[in-house]
Amino acid sequence: MIIDCAVYQQGKRRPGTLALEQAYEAACEPGAFVWIGLYEPDEHEFDSVRREFSLHELAVEDAITAHQRPKLEAYDDTLFVVLKTARYLEADESVEFGEIMLFIGPQFVVAVRHKPASELRGVRKQIEDRPDLLRFGPGAVLYAIMDRVVDDYLPVIEGLDKDIQEVEREVFSEAGSNPAERIYMLKREVIEFHQSTAPLVEPLDRLASRPFALLHQDIGEYFRDVEDHLLRVVERVAGFRDLLTSVLDANLTQVGVRQSEVAMRQNADMRKISAWVAIAAVPTMIAGIYGMNFDHMPELRWVVGYPLVLLVMAVACGGLYRAFKRNGWL
Amino acid sequence: MIIDCAVYQQGKRRPGTLALEQAYEAACEPGAFVWIGLYEPDEHEFDSVRREFSLHELAVEDAITAHQRPKLEAYDDTLFVVLKTARYLEADESVEFGEIMLFIGPQFVVAVRHKPASELRGVRKQIEDRPDLLRFGPGAVLYAIMDRVVDDYLPVIEGLDKDIQEVEREVFSEAGSNPAERIYMLKREVIEFHQSTAPLVEPLDRLASRPFALLHQDIGEYFRDVEDHLLRVVERVAGFRDLLTSVLDANLTQVGVRQSEVAMRQNADMRKISAWVAIAAVPTMIAGIYGMNFDHMPELRWVVGYPLVLLVMAVACGGLYRAFKRNGWL
Amino acid sequence: MIIDCAVYQQGKRRPGTLALEQAYEAACEPGAFVWIGLYEPDEHEFDSVRREFSLHELAVEDAITAHQRPKLEAYDDTLFVVLKTARYLEADESVEFGEIMLFIGPQFVVAVRHKPASELRGVRKQIEDRPDLLRFGPGAVLYAIMDRVVDDYLPVIEGLDKDIQEVEREVFSEAGSNPAERIYMLKREVIEFHQSTAPLVEPLDRLASRPFALLHQDIGEYFRDVEDHLLRVVERVAGFRDLLTSVLDANLTQVGVRQSEVAMRQNADMRKISAWVAIAAVPTMIAGIYGMNFDHMPELRWVVGYPLVLLVMAVACGGLYRAFKRNGWL
Amino acid sequence: MIIDCAVYQQGKRRPGTLALEQAYEAACEPGAFVWIGLYEPDEHEFDSVRREFSLHELAVEDAITAHQRPKLEAYDDTLFVVLKTARYLEADESVEFGEIMLFIGPQFVVAVRHKPASELRGVRKQIEDRPDLLRFGPGAVLYAIMDRVVDDYLPVIEGLDKDIQEVEREVFSEAGSNPAERIYMLKREVIEFHQSTAPLVEPLDRLASRPFALLHQDIGEYFRDVEDHLLRVVERVAGFRDLLTSVLDANLTQVGVRQSEVAMRQNADMRKISAWVAIAAVPTMIAGIYGMNFDHMPELRWVVGYPLVLLVMAVACGGLYRAFKRNGWL
Amino acid sequence: MIIDCAVYQQGKRRPGTLALEQAYEAACEPGAFVWIGLYEPDEHEFDSVRREFSLHELAVEDAITAHQRPKLEAYDDTLFVVLKTARYLEADESVEFGEIMLFIGPQFVVAVRHKPASELRGVRKQIEDRPDLLRFGPGAVLYAIMDRVVDDYLPVIEGLDKDIQEVEREVFSEAGSNPAERIYMLKREVIEFHQSTAPLVEPLDRLASRPFALLHQDIGEYFRDVEDHLLRVVERVAGFRDLLTSVLDANLTQVGVRQSEVAMRQNADMRKISAWVAIAAVPTMIAGIYGMNFDHMPELRWVVGYPLVLLVMAVACGGLYRAFKRNGWL
């Protein structure tokens, strides 16, 4: 699907949108360049683009099938750039990735988006308001898109940061839950996010430090700025990985401690119950003795026998109670 | 065993297969090259190949004994390439490795496969359908084979990814199994897969960035594309290693939690049983007291003695029951 | 807000402070340079600065929004430097970060501070006392500020070191607390501190080894000295990370050991109580037997029956007591 | 002790062995070189060698004292190479290290072995059978020895691999042993092996890629081949380290699981015993009640009293039994 | 404090010691150089040195305050070197660090020691016995001191190695101690030792590979030798870190296993005691039944009643005993 197709000249958009055929012609006018935005183009649409701009077959193959890694490929007089877009989904705390492929030629930009990618229309508006930049030609468009893609990484970083902080609170709270699965799933997200962002550093560095013939040389500083933002993302992601490893370890300790506390309380309960049973066993034993039916048991005849035995029982129980209390068993 | 042997000229296969002797002659015709496919050749077969193409003795030695690491060796006017093929075996969740050795000369390609290697015949078909590529000579064949080998890594990646996801579900399920052994064995596979793929990055980079004299210079971009796919494999494998380390740690926590839960339930059972025994001990003790045979026990003479004692017993038991209930012991 | 604004000539400050407008003029006098200190400038203030010194729009954008990573950007004839300041807060054992952005031109220095940044006024005093350095121009000011920022990292290092030592004592003390959360939070601080300091190494290295045209060449050694201090900070921070990982592991062991010791003591208590109950069960059983009401129980008639049974009970209890004592159960 | 000392000319050994003095003279004949093999030479022997070939004092010092790291030192026109040999001892599953020091000059090779080093005599035989290689001069001897030393690492790798697999089986078997010590000791071996092999990569790379003036330039490819074998060793050793770390972690899980299983079985036993005691407590309690000696206990007079009570006891016990059974306590 | 101050000419020490003032003059004589050894110099002493040799202010600042990291700084025609000395203290198994700062000029060496540093006097003796080396000038002194400092690392390595082996024995012994704290403290030492030694590799590499103008070019090989010894130290320290991480993990397993064994023994004891109590409960219950006072209990009248009941009791107890024995509970 063709999203937008326009000619830019002298840093300004020529009004209206063009059909593809007109675009090819316009791309030959000196000082002009066309910017074609495609969304999951079908083979037919793309084939005409490929032929008109004589794009390299390998780049075209990559552009049609998604799931590429971020990269910058320089063919004779065309640059092919793959970008990974990322969006943080609040609902299920996950990161959704999309892809944008760009063909940059001396007089054209072809942008191919794959669902679910970040919107590019806003970018077009933004850059059209900057004739000073647009004057740099296709390189300015490349900058504008990369800048947007990298800026869109920031909300993802914030979302992951917030999740990690929640998980920390959960680990160190008294509540006693075990967020091991959530920690692990965050680590998975972070690793995938790393794989989508880190490989872009090298292409940006190449764009910033040894500009390609087909890019205006003053655009280098702009790519340096994007690289700088990307580096910040990559460093924070590296920090997240380290934190999540530590929090998983800390969680093991915390879960262990909480379980141990439960076990200790249970053990203390058992000890208390057993201690009471032990106390009750003493009068039972004494009573058993004086329940024996021997003919000759002189104590049984004593008038004070019964109260004396009750006293002995009471003293024995009282003694045990105090001893157990002293040991902290009751 | 000779699998196939053909001459290619002007990007087209000359019809039919050749005997080895004819191949040597054909390799001297200007603008032609031969492609010889061997499968675990015996010494005799290989010796003739070696002599005709004057292959370097070190390369020949490596080609006969398997278990090499992936590499690219440049001898005077021959390239020697070792590739590791990989195949994911669904049945026992393991990865099977094979080896392909390639000798690339100005006018010949000798491909030696070791069991169990990936099929090359499909590759031959594919490349024979691309006369535009074949025109590049032996380098095109090298590209086609490397492209196939690297593409064949993808199903392995998918297989390992699926296994890791299964293991994750097992770790975090309620079922309570302990997949430590499976996690470890996956890690073993992943490490071995890493050792078979990562060393290939450097040779591909050399092929892509500073093409060898004997390769057509336009073929470089094709190797760059293969390198790119390989990098994606290597990065995902690195991610797998990290994930498996984390999942092994998480498993320790989960197994510990589940075992603790069992222990806690057992402890709670014990506490309940002990509490009941303690309740039963009280009437037993009281009964024992009134079962004593003292002559002077006035209570025994009371008419209300017996019902009173039963009442006392009931009250005591009821009181204990309520107290234990309040403590959560029953 | 404008903090200070002065002209320096021949290594000396021209007395008084200037309005911004005068500053721009002064910056054009040969052999002079102005140093403007701003604190969270509003758009209006900054806009005039930007226009007068024709600062690059990307640098200006970075200077207004905080949360940049440390970096050095070279625009045509301006250097843009971002520094992260750090301050250790004793009260809550945390590190507070601030930011300083510097624009260095051939005849001007613009320093922008973001709250809460370290004070720069002290730096101005210090450097004004060193006419020999000031003679080097804006580069000397850049050196003085970077030197101060890096020196201010040292108290943070000391504070973190002290905290880590406290945590170590807590882990290995007998007291039995579980400082897992504190260890983790320290690790978080250390990672953040690393992200604020490590990226500054590369800019300092560039300043030290291949001086920029607009810096006096003799200033290089001074930046080398700052880099050296920074490297010491970075190395110690790396050591902290390693230590905190180890101490978290050691804490797991220590907490486990202490919990196990409690559990063992509880188990030993239970065993002791149970052993006493077992001892009491024996005379209870014997007494029960002689409490049976059979008509024909010859022992009951014996005169020595009762004392004999008491003896048997005593011997049995004594025997059990000794056996349990021998096993260490009592 | 002098092991062997011979002159080589035109790729052939001149028959017989020489005394040291003759060797020095032979080393001056054009087109010839001597190869002196020493085994733990005493100071006197070595001193004459040192003087004749004017070896550098630092190299000589290193050659006499063992315990060097593998290295390659280039002095004016002498190369000094230190190699670590390794041998796997099946008996006590350990690796024994030895050292070989080599002085390579334009017309001499001095090989010094330290006990227990791998045998070099076999190497001499082998290389003497390859006049084509020997023609390259001392460099060929260097290659032959390095090739042998590196090839001798392979059995060590196999031995360690076998040990690790044994340890894996032990960890994941049902048998219940705790191989933590064995795992740790294997890790120790692997680390030491790494320290003996990894530093040799860089010297081999130098030998392969920028050949030294005193080595024949065609020998480079041979060193590349040795380097390749060494890299395979180093990569596998790195894999071993990773595996051993994982297996130590997995062992912690497995040991914990097995211990937990024992504890659970013990707990289940305790619960069963306690349940039986609880069942027995009920008739004991009832019997105690009817064993009381109150004058007014009407039930005692009933004819059906006794059987009724026995029925009640049986019903109570039966009820408890069924309840406990239902809970899984019996 | 001035330790020693002498002039060296032609590789020989001019007899006697000099006052500082004479030293400055001597340092101007062609072909001579002075070597001044200072021990924690006061400001006054150092100031005169600084002025005479016009040392760079930054180096002087570093030389007065201790706690620098090892480094090599090249100022116009002076080298400034910071070395960390280390000494293993047997008594408390710790490593004591000191510092030596060196200023190397074309005709002077100023060595500043900070307590507690290794003795340098021995070095002076040693190097004075090597006129061939001394002839190389100040560079020879730098080599001699660095060589000594690095050689002094070896006893530290040996001491740490011995400690680690002790700790290993403790971990894997039956004795059952928990050396977690000792392991951790060793790790701390090792990290600190790493920070004192590893940064010295780069300076040594610079000294060895691209000699400075003010050092004799033949001295490079000597620094290469020192670097080599240092690399061995650094590699072993890296190995120590890895080992200590593993031994801390292994200790967790071992401590857990030993604690589990104690718990299992305690549980087995409890089971045994409970089993005996359960056995005793049976005759108690039976005796209770026949102790009931029902009028109509025919068994009580039987002559064989009493012996029969005793038999039943014995059989019941015997049966239980055998069953418990079979289950392994007794």
Structure description:
Five copies of one chain form a homopentamer. The first copy, chain A, has 330 residues and is an alpha+beta fold. Helix content of chain A is 58%, strand content 16%. Chain A contains eleven helices and seven strands. Chain A has a seven-stranded mixed β-sheet, with helices on both faces. In chain A, a hairpin with a 2-residue loop joins β4 (71-75) and β5. The mean pLDDT of chain A is 89. Chains in contact: A-B, A-C, B-D, C-E, D-E. Chains A and B meet through β4, α8, α10 and α11 of A and α7 and α10 of B.
Q: Name the helicity range of chain A.
A: 55-70%
* Largest protein interface, residues of each chain: A-B, 61 and 50 residues
**Which shape of chain A, going by the Cα principal axes?**
rod-shaped
* Mean pLDDT figure of chain A: 89
Summarize the structure.
Chain A is α+β, with helices and mostly antiparallel strands.
Features:
alpha+beta, seven-stranded mixed β-sheet, 7 strands, homopentamer, 330 residues
Structural topology:
The structure is a homopentamer of 330-residue chains.
Chain A: E1 2-9, E2 12-13, H1 20-26, E3 32-39, H2 43-52, H3 57-64, E4 71-75, E5 78-89, E6 94-104, E7 108-114, H4 121-128, H5 131-134, H6 138-151, H7 153-172, H8 180-197, H9 201-209, H10 220-290, H11 305-327
